[in-house]
Specification:
This protein has 185 residues and is α/β, with parallel strands linked by helices. The chain contains six helices and six strands, in the order ααβββαβαβαβα. A hairpin with a 6-residue loop joins strand 1 and strand 2.
Length: 185
């Protein structure tokens, strides 16, 4: 259990004891489901999202705006954006973010595939939707520099105040970005 992300020692111990109390058939069903998941799920041929077929549901949807491309770090980021129903374009999943401390350089991300894709397809805008942390910012800067010679409009997700947040609890960077990104009311 120690190999599952975000599962600490106590939670892993509770899960282990729960599985020991579970009837054998249920434990075997869970094990089969995990093996089946690993067999069925693959990466989309075009965007590297999770998929059961060659193309993921987003890439295979003819109603998507094929002039917009949103670059995200992981499939979980894509899922979060999809939940908003505010974006109807396509995606490209990098498979992580630049992080020298974790030995993740440009060669470990799907940047070559991104560059091939933007040269092959007719995107009008590329939206950089990497996480608003040091690694995500470094990745966004790196990708924007790669895209600049192509003359594509490259944008970054707006950053600022969270809905329902209190100003007194915000860090300086978030508050600075909210001030810089303000708009007409």
């Amino acid at each position: 259990m120690g190999k599952l992300p975000t599962i600490g020692r106590k939670t892993a111990q509770r899960l282990a004891f729960h599985m020991l109390k579970t009837p054998e058939e249920e434990a075997e069903a869970l094990a089969r489901a995990i093996v089946e998941l690993r067999r069925k799920i693959r990466l989309c041929r075009d965007c590297f999202n999770l998929a059961e077929e060659e193309l993921c549901p987003v890439c295979s949807d003819p109603r998507r705006d094929r002039t917009l491309l949103c670059v995200v770090e992981e499939p979980t980021n894509l899922i979060s954006i999809e939940r908003t129903s505010a974006y109807r374009g396509l995606y490209h999943v990098l498979g992580g973010a630049l992080s020298p401390l974790k030995d993740v350089g440009p060669e470990r991300l799907r940047l070559r595939e991104l560059m091939e894709r933007v040269q092959r397809e007719r995107f009008c805008e590329v939206i950089l939707a990497t996480n608003p942390n040091v690694e995500g910012e470094a990745t966004a800067v790196y990708v924007s520099r790669l895209l600049k010679p192509l003359g594509l409009q490259t944008t970054r997700l707006a950053q600022g105040l969270p809905a329902g947040g209190d100003l007194e609890f915000l860090d300086e960077l978030t508050l600075r970005r909210a001030l810089e990104g303000r708009r007409e009311y």
